[in-house]
Amino acid sequence: MAETHYSLNRDLEEARAMAEGLDDYVQSEMLYGSVQGAGIFSADSSMPSLTIGGLLLRLHRLQKLEGQMSLEQKAILTVIQTEHDRVRNEWSVHYIQKVSNEADARLRGLEAFFAECDGDPEGCANAYWPEAQRRTILQEIVDALNKYKMPDSDLDRSLKSHDAQLRRLTEPTDFIWDAKLQPVYPQEKYWWLYAEPTGETEEQEVE
Fold first, then answer.
1. How far is CA 145 from the centre of its chain?
2. 156 domain-assigned
3. What is the DSSP string of 106-149?
4. 152 or 54, which is more confident
5. 3-class state of residue 102 by DSSP
């Protein structure tokens, strides 16, 4: 995962590729789009799927880390943000529908993870890091909807319920991603990035 060995350059390149494909993506039926890399990350490199949540994830931390950027990097970030905002404004209905579908899919992913934890606590612990990213993207979606005055009360309720399950399965630990990202994700808000599965089922904990 990119979050375990974080590269600001890679985040910027991935965000730029996502922004360049965003217009076509929001008008399509697909939930997970594809992007082509450029520069040091060519089309042969492993690029993440294009989703609005994936772009929001990168935009958030790039904005938080902007003080570390060169003037050229800052200019690229401005272009990315401008393109995102343009697509969101011009295709607002499509944008909201895409975000809603993505949130539903990521919530179902968390539910599958909970079911895995019930049946295989050790496997649950090994599979946690992708779920931590999934939960972080969900937070980016919620924050964006609130920022753009498009709150989703159903999503808020579902996320609160899922968080209650996630808290029962985890215990506090040190920040699990690359330390370079820790300033972006304060523990009070992003508590799941400071947690790991206990490796036990609820029944085992009761015993």
1. 14
2. yes
3. HHHHHHHHHHHHHH-HHHHHHTHHHHHHHHHHHHHHHHHHHHTT
4. 54
5. helix
